[in-house]
Amino acid sequence: MGLLNLFVRHLFHHFLKGNGRIRIASDSGKCVPHVGAHEVRSGHAAANLVVPANAGLSPRVTFERGAQIPFKRTDVVTLHTEAQSVHHADQFFGLGIAAVGGWQKLRHRLFKALGVHQIAAGFDLRKDGRCACQKCSKNNAFHPVFLVVILGALVCAPAYGTPLPQPLQEADFNPVDLEKAKIGQLLFFDPLLSGNRNIACATCHHPEMGSGDGLSLGIGEGGEGLGRERTPGQGDAKIVKRIPRNAPALWNLGAREIDVMFHDGRLSVSDIYENGFDSPAQEWLPEGLDSILAAQALFPMTAEFEMAGNPKENQIAGAVYDRIDSVWPIVAKRVRVIPEYAEMFIAAFDDVDQALDINISHIVNAIAAFENHEFTSFDSPFDAYLGGDDTALNAEQKAGMALFFGKAVCSSCHSGKLLSDQQFHALMLPHFGPGKTRQWDPVVRDVGRMGASDRLEDAYRFRTPMLRNVALTAPYGHNGAYDDLEMMVRHHLNPRAAFEAWDTNNAVLPEVPWLEKADFRPFDDKRERQRLSARADIDEIVLSDAEVAQVVAFLHSLTGTASVKGRLGVPESVPSGLEVPK
């Protein structure tokens, strides 16, 4: 019954709805049918050709718009398509007969009347196709045995390759209240939220640095300056530790599908504590959070080496060691006593009637609104291509895209609309810096997801990053192990070889003389290197230098246009009167 329904549905699509078709034509000069650039309509995004085993063609050939694919024989080919990737319908296979003529043409018309040659409205034939080569004309006939092959394939044939994702759209993101976003912009750039009032969210996530800080491991509270010019501070205020992990980019964190945050996933959507999230705050997370992005904004304020500071230096840092939720009322009070902030909150939030009503949830909801508004990006050339503009990518980028979703298997992890499976994988990136591990762990290292889950199988695994604007977000990896995008791609292709060849000069670390001996202690630990090398989740993939360059070219096509210029931008000043990082 299911097969009958499939047949009837596609018969309906073909005759009544008139779906576009990919046409298979016969090349009269070479007597070889091919798919030509002029014969593939712009509505067809990607597909795979599947041919009978005796047709002399590899059973896995991915093609895109404009691809030229020669056939060694001209019997029957089938087109495997993914739902919504080619015709936006539940299509699986199409059947074509090359260079139909004579009595075969009558048979072709019979099959067309029955809808058999269009089982999935996959492709059609040019009726004027001719084959000038007599010796191959016998191969142009339709053999009934192939119908059995096709019908059997409908049930059991595997899918080949990975289809292109659907285009990102505004509906894929949480809605933004612009008035709240304007408050969030000021708070994002205001050092008021830090313990010693000397570092803002934007210090480590600056729009001019791809929403990061340009460093492998950042310099947090106590440092001076911005980006790669940032210094570790002086005197009693100087840093005593680098931030353990690379500052993650903020692009598209307002997407509805995101349910986990941070490199190790220590914040996730869950009702384990009956407050909507599984987080380091456990049951002490405040109520009234709009999203996981708002929840994320709570935690840098409580981190000693990020924004809180030394416990002896300020009230916020001291409160962290009392209980984590002791910090947030102090931050909220700092904000609400500033008249300009109070007036803006009263105007933007329905449940704020006076300054005393402002709490930490209002503050982080405003910051999340700004981050969602400012860093949403789906206007790259790749996005334009997904939207139907075949000219948005050049030839090298298209070749790189084919590799990314095919031979290079990048899309096995970088999948979906956001180009991330939001899961955790071990890439065997070299250890350096202070690391982040489980409490009371005597070894200086970064155990990744295991530190949050406490499961051994999660050791050294980190969340798959999303890739919009990836060319702007160097250094790469959870610890910024590579400052060059091509080097990061090559590491993925052969993690073990790259790990052994990695040099400490690849890391972008501002000079901190008193930390030099500690910076690469984990990298030099032979036992830890052995543990790390045993946990790689990806196997070697061989690409030529030209193919690597094509993949990198495709990754550059993920860079946005208007979105990277900023929407609200960097404010000239903030209500606290403190210095804006810029």
TrEMBL record:
Compartments, record wording: Cell envelope
GO CC aspect terms: cell envelope
InterPro entries documented for this protein: Cyt_c-like_dom, Cyt_c-like_dom_sf, Cytochrome_c_Peroxidase/MauG, Di-haem_cyt_c_peroxidsae
Keyword Thylakoid on entry: no
Cross-referenced Gene3D superfamilies: Cytochrome c-like domain
Pfam families: CCP_MauG
GO molecular function: cytochrome-c peroxidase activity; electron transfer activity; heme binding; metal ion binding
Species whose genome carries this gene: Shimia haliotis
Superkingdom of source: Bacteria
Protein name, as recorded: Cytochrome c peroxidase
PROSITE patterns, A to Z: CYTC
PANTHER family: CYTOCHROME C PEROXIDASE-RELATED (PTHR30600)
UniProt KW keywords: Heme, Iron, Metal-binding, Oxidoreductase, Peroxidase
Domain Cytochrome c as annotated: residue spans: 395-559
